[in-house]
């Protein structure tokens, strides 16, 4: 069996899917955009910077974005803490209702 070329993304996807049962989950690996930064000098990982768009009913429990982000950070704490792990994580967290309103706004424009 071939070894994954995106183990960090795979781990993130598995954890987020299991914990949040998302209706939408988009993970973007933006590491290549940041590889030239001084903080990334000597880092061999190609999976350090991510954007995540996630829609889940679980976010109804935490109405404010900071609380939702803390839920995701807590889930991914090991990936954030490990050497060569996630250096930056940009999140967009929504409930299904918020996602529907966003789609309606985009269609109206």
From TrEMBL:
Residues 84-109 are annotated as: Disordered. It comes from the Eukaryota. PANTHER family: BOLA-LIKE PROTEIN 1 (PTHR46230:SF7), PTHR46230. It comes from Paraconiothyrium brasiliense. Residues 94-109 have a biased composition (Basic and acidic residues). Belongs to the BolA/IbaG family. This is BolA domain UV induced protein Uvi31.
